[in-house]
Amino acid sequence: MHDRVRPGTRLLVTAPSGGFALPAVHSRPIVLLAAGIGITPFLSHLETLDPASAPEIVLHHGSRDASRHAFRERIAELAARLPTVQVLDHYSRPGPDDHSDFTGRVTADRVDADLIRRRARFYLCGPETMLEELTAGLVARGVPRFDIFTEKFHAAPAPVQIPDDATATVRFARSGREVTWRAGDGDLLRFAEASGVALPSGCRLGQCESCAVPVLDGTVAHLVAVADDLPADQCLACQAVPTSDVVLDA
């Protein structure tokens, strides 16, 4: 296979990315709601959990029927290994011999009220219409919007092309610091930390979008697609790089 790669070809390798990161340890319940192959990020999460420290997790997984139930056997194996994980299957068009916990699509009213009372955190993955309906339904049941995290199915954004010799002046307005950013410095969150400037961030703990910071002047680009409801004058520092001299409210 190597002889098919032409000499001089450049390979871009990036870290895994996505719209959210799930906590491996947490004091509150975690509710996962997925349809079809929207189970994929949750499957990866379950694979990494330690049975001795895994949080309480309730997984609602929607499929058309048993024959189209993605990763059914592997999910069952993981649930058997993880005593704090409960899996609830939803079949929208079950066959006569199909057995599931719920008939119909995954909806907000299927979530146990006790989980909402105990301030569970909700992670959703699936088609955009499903995410909108679930989010609206959960909010109507009293779930704070900031406790709901979504991952949409959409085409990957065109990669940001940053020249190797790119530079920009980054000014942290409230800190009074002005530092030169270079392409090798990476995203603004890492750059700020390396420059001795503390930015708000819970990204590494699964609190996605907690690193949002106002851009007072200049322009930035995100390395991945970001949520549609991110204000136009803000950037996610953990995924943003400057495309001009920039002033951040930090």
Automatic annotation (TrEMBL):
Cross-referenced CDD domains: fer2
Cofactor: FAD
Source superkingdom: Bacteria
Keyword Nucleotidyltransferase appears in the UniProt entry: no
Keyword Lipid metabolism among UniProt keywords: no
Classification via PROSITE patterns: 2FE2S_FER_2 (PS51085)
Protein name, UniProt field: Flavin reductase family protein
Provenance organism: Amycolatopsis silviterrae
